[in-house]
Amino acid sequence: MKNTITLPRVAPISAVLLTFLTACSHNGDSPAPSTPTTSYKGSVTLFDEFGNKVSDKSGVIISVVDQPNATATTDATGAFSLAVPQGTRRLNFSKPGYGTYLSSALTVESAPIVAAQSVALGQVSSTYLTYIRSWEKINYGDYYRFMGRINAPSTATQVRSHRIFYALAKDVSPTNYKATSLFNGSLPDTGGNSSWYWVSDSVSRATITGLNAGPADKVYAVVYGDNPAAATYADPVSGRTIYPAVSVQKADAFECVR
After folding, report:
1. Predicted local confidence at residue 78, as pLDDT
2. Distance CA 84, CA 112 (A)
3. What pLDDT is recorded for position 29?
4. Claim to verify: residue 162 and residue 238 sit in the same structural domain
5. Over the stretch 112-126, which tens digit does the pLDDT of each residue have?
6. Facing residues of 146 across strands?
7. Which of 15, 123, 149, 238 could join 131 via S-S bond, C-beta 3.0 to 4.6 A?
8. 65 three-state secondary structure
9. 158 vs 182: CA distance, rounded Å
10. The pTM is what?
11. Which segments of the chain are extended strands (E)?
12. What is the DSSP string of 141-176?
């Protein structure tokens, strides 16, 4: 008698593959739905380092912090339109040569947003200190006077500004300070040296005592060029005001003798 062996039936390869893919699609491997976005329209105003408005306002990049694909660029008028993912967001405004601006936290819901005010970006200052001459008490100690030289003259149409940052440590900087003072202009050298541009700044005693320095504490300061036309913002971590258009160059920190 002839023996008959029956083998199990094997499904075609294409059928097995289809079953596998179908199973995967039901196991949560499909892409998660994207966050809905809302239209955000606004504008940017550009200023050169002396505070004069720049006519061509194109090329400013607006991006959503932590959302690398959400960006827009201003046109020549400074206008932009950006699709912002809904939620609590911050916007970053940047252009090469200009100080970066970070918006406060925005609550983005479904309704379109039109910004009420234009964001002011200022060109980074090229002003810097070349020499420190003195820091001294004046007017019976009601004021302190700082004297030094900057690298270029200040004129009626090109007003150069510089900012002094104060702290209780030598590592004082635009991101590590307790008080600050802004000054404008320069003075010609009384001795006739045409390449020396002097600055003489009077700082109130209240500014220095407001640092909460004890009698034994030393007060330090550092000078940077600044563009006050640039919008400032609060650092989201420290809460300290950020001056985004201060110069890259600086002089060494010095001790403010009291």
Report:
1. 98
2. 10
3. 57
4. yes
5. 999 999 999 999 999
6. 135, 201
7. 149
8. coil
9. 16
10. 0.84
11. 37-47, 61-64, 67-73, 79-85, 87-89, 91-94, 101-102, 106-108, 113-114, 119-122, 129-138, 143-150, 161-167, 179-184, 187-188, 197-204, 220-226, 233-234, 241-242, 254-255
12. GTEEEEEEEESS---SSS--EEEEEEESSTT-BTTB
Same domain, 108 and 48: yes
pLDDT band at 6 (very low <50, low <70, confident <90, very high): very low
* pLDDT tens, residue by residue, 28-45: 555 556 889 999 999 999
Residue type, 212: N
Q: Is residue 223 left, alpha or beta, with left meaning phi > 0 and alpha meaning psi from -120 to 50?
A: beta
Q: Is residue 166 part of a domain?
A: yes
Of 122, 152, 167, the last residue of a domain is 122
Same domain as 47, residue 149: no
Which sign does the torsion angle of CA 64, 69, 72, 73 carry? positive
Q: For residue 177, give both structure tokens.
A: 């300070």
Element spanning 19, H or E: helix 13-25
**Residue where the block lists tokens 């500004």:** 161
Domain with 56 in it: 37-122
Phi, psi of 206 (to 5 degrees): -60, -35
User: Coil, strand or helix: which one is 20?
Assistant: helix
103 near 91, Cβ under 8 Å?
A: yes
- Local structure of residue 224 (DSSP, 8 states): E
Q: Which two tokens stand for residue 42?
A: 């606004």
**Is there a single domain that holds both residue 142 and residue 224?**
yes
* Contacts of 132 by beta carbon, 8 Å cutoff, 6+ apart: 146, 147, 148, 223, 251, 254
Does 139 lie in the same domain as 114? no
